[in-house]
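Inverse folding, one chain.
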C-alpha cells in the first residue's frame, strides 16, 4: 500500500529539497543549501526543549495537526504560517 517506509527521507516539492522526519532535526540534508525540514513528534508540547528552539530556525516546520488547525498543510502553507508568527 505504501511506496516506501523510511525513518527519514528527502523529497522535492516545487524544486525545493524537503527533509521529512518524525523528529525535529537541527541539521538535515541540504540544510546549509536552503533545504526545508518538516517534522512532527513534539506536537504542541511547549515543555519539549525542541519546541522553542525550532521556532527560531528558518525553514524548519512542525506539521503536527494540533499546531496546524487539525488540517493537513502544504509546504507553502507551513511557510506562510511561520511568517505570520
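Residues assigned per position:
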Amino acid at each position: 500500500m505504501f511506496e516506501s517506509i523510511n525513518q527519514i527521507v528527502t523529497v522535492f516539492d516545487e524544486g525545493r529539497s524537503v527533509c521529512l522526519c518524525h523528529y525535529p532535526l537541527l541539521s538535515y540534508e541540504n540544510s546549509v543549501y536552503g533545504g526545508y525540514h518538516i517534522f512532527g513528534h513534539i506536537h504542541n508540547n511547549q515543555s519539549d526543549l525542541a519546541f522553542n528552539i525550532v521556532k527560531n530556525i528558518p525553514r524548519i516546520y512542525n506539521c503536527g495537526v494540533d499546531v496546524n488547525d487539525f488540517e493537513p498543510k502544504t509546504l507553502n502553507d507551513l511557510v506562510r504560517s511561520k511568517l505570520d508568527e
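Residues 8 and 21 are 5 Å apart (CA to CA). The mean pLDDT is 93.
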